[in-house]
Amino acid sequence: MSLENHHPLTSISSSTSGFLGQNKLSIRTQNLSIPAKNSGISRCIATPTLEKNEAYKTKVSRNANMAKLQAGYLFPEVARRTEAHKLKYPNAKVISLGIGDTTEPIPEIITSAMAKRSYTLSTIKGYTGYGAEQGEKQLRSAIASTFYANLGIEANDIFVSDGAKSDISRLQVLFGSNVTMAVQDPSYPAYVDSSVIMGQTGQFQTRVEKYENIEYMKCTPENGFFPDLSTVSPTNIIFFCSPNNPTGFAASREQLTKLVQFAKDNGSIIVYDSAYALYMSDDNPRSIFEIPGAKEVSLEFIFKILSARFGTFGFFSLFLLPLIVNNQHLWLGTGATAYT
Ligand SMILES: Cc1ncc(COP(=O)(O)O)c(C=O)c1O
Prior knowledge:
Layout: E1 2-5, E2 9-11, H1 16-21, E3 33-35, E4 42-45, H2 74-88, H3 108-120, H4 137-147, E5 158-161, H5 164-175, E6 181-185, H6 190-198, E7 204-205, E8 210-211, E9 214-218, E10 237-241, H7 253-266, E11 269-273, E12 298-301, H8 304-307, E13 317-320, E14 324-325, E15 328-329, H9 332-338
Parallel strand pairs: 6-9, 6-10, 10-11, 11-12
Antiparallel strand pairs: 1-4, 2-3, 5-13, 7-8, 12-13, 14-15
Bound molecules: pyridoxal-5'-phosphate (PLP).
């Protein structure tokens, strides 16, 4: 852009001394100058920097692993296929097994507490600035005593965050691209997709509809929805969801004991997703930490205790991570970087 004027000019300089010392400013392009004080009217004229129709391109390329993802996230794909089916068979009565949604309003006790807390932040006395990276101590203590009494989990083991899906990806950042991982098959898709994005996997194999370098642990009616661990290849990370989404299967104490032993034998970490634990009505474990020794090899998401049950998806992830590396909680570095 150039600025034509009919009066004496003040040019712009990036030098501070020039800027402060004299009324003399200039920029490298010489295309822009501003009139000195009281210098009168100016007229702006655009100076084209690109040839017509030439789109500007950065030199930054996308994470190549993104190209491995198949048709994006699973649920939009389910919705796309459902629509296509309905278009083809307008009279079909479709039972959707796609993404669910909460249907009940958020209880007033939650919304009023949130309103009260946010109002407090608008007062001089109540304003706190950034909160603790791990979440408020009072909340973490309450979670520990309410859900983990007698399981050896304390407030310091608990991290409160903004949702499980984002935490699954952050965990993958923590693990890095050189780990191997296992998932139940079928399972909630975020485990696999975040692994793909991190570069832990090979390409998608269309013939078998699986990614290379992921250990898929078959969970079907034939094996009672629990993997036959004698056929599972050891991996660094084992994502395990119980009750499982989408099968609804909840693992028994004996099965989880086997899983913990399997992880210990192979030096693996279990990422245990107990998102739907509050829906359980039998006495199968609600937490992996009910299994002796699990604390040494596991971390657990318990976020859905609040979110799924009380209609507040994506509000909280209660992230429980007692694993210690070099005398520090495994999550502390990543968590503190991701949250303020
Ligand atoms: C098993 C499981 N884990 C994690 C999530 C994601 O939870 P959030 O809404 O807290 O991101 C879901 C969401 O449906 C889920 O089904």
